[in-house]
């Protein structure tokens, strides 16, 4: 269910268990505390835990295929120094990105294609929060147009030039501007210039003053990546609009508390 920003994205997701006045809980790389990040398993687990939104990272292979993967290299997963961008899809499609995860339960897990991840989210009635890592705006827009899902997704990036390009490709898609470190006056002015629908910031670099300024300017505000319940409770009390977390079930229980 997508109702746009009339009222807020909270209302947009009211049919998915999100209450007005409560922050939206977003599963970071899926339920990544319980499953290998950016995998089918982590997306499905996020759905089981009740997350209305699932965030995942997307990179583009050397032959133009968009896949789910966060890191710049495969070192954390396979020990290799190679990159998604330096490989063809055929050369990395069988890479095991689950064996590293605690316990070996997910050994053999493969990287999903961007298209597959979107379809999986829709199958489980979740909103995909697509984090651009690499690849052109046109490449992302092509898949989104083919699936006819522009009104069902959110795209975010640390690369604000990408967001400007993406606005030209699909102006009606909801956008999130990601950031960290100090939210300076210059960066605030830049955000207002291209007017994303929300701003997502590193919680450790964020202040109550930042929250007030952004919300007063008409932006929804999300924080990443909040896993500590006490930290989350502080920001829920302050009126934060969304929390990106590795532990969606923990944060969902916290957000639902009186």
What's the short story on this structure?
By secondary structure, this protein is an alpha/beta fold. It contains 11 helices and 9 strands.
Draw up the topology in text:
Blueprint: H1 9-12, E1 24-28, H2 40-49, E2 53-60, E3 66-68, H3 75-78, H4 89-92, H5 114-123, E4 127-132, H6 137-147, E5 154-157, H7 160-169, E6 174-179, H8 185-194, E7 198-202, H9 208-216, E8 220-224, H10 229-238, E9 242-245, H11 248-256
Parallel strand pairs: 1-2, 1-9, 2-4, 4-5, 5-6, 6-7, 7-8, 8-9
Antiparallel strand pairs: 2-3
Walk me through the structure:
The protein has 258 residues and is an alpha/beta fold. The protein has a single domain (9-256), classed as Phosphatidylinositol (PI) phosphodiesterase (TIM Barrel), CATH 3.20.20.190. The chain has helices at 9-12, 40-49, 75-78, 89-92, 114-123, 137-147, 160-169, 185-194, 208-216, 229-238, 248-256, and strands spanning 24-28, 53-60, 66-68, 127-132, 154-157, 174-179, 198-202, 220-224, 242-245. An 8-stranded parallel barrel has the order 1-2-4-5-6-7-8-9, surrounded by 5 helices. α10 (229-238) crosses α11. It is globular, with a radius of gyration of 17 Å.
**Overall shape:** globular
% residues in beta strands: 15-25%
CATH class: Alpha Beta
| Total count of domains | 1
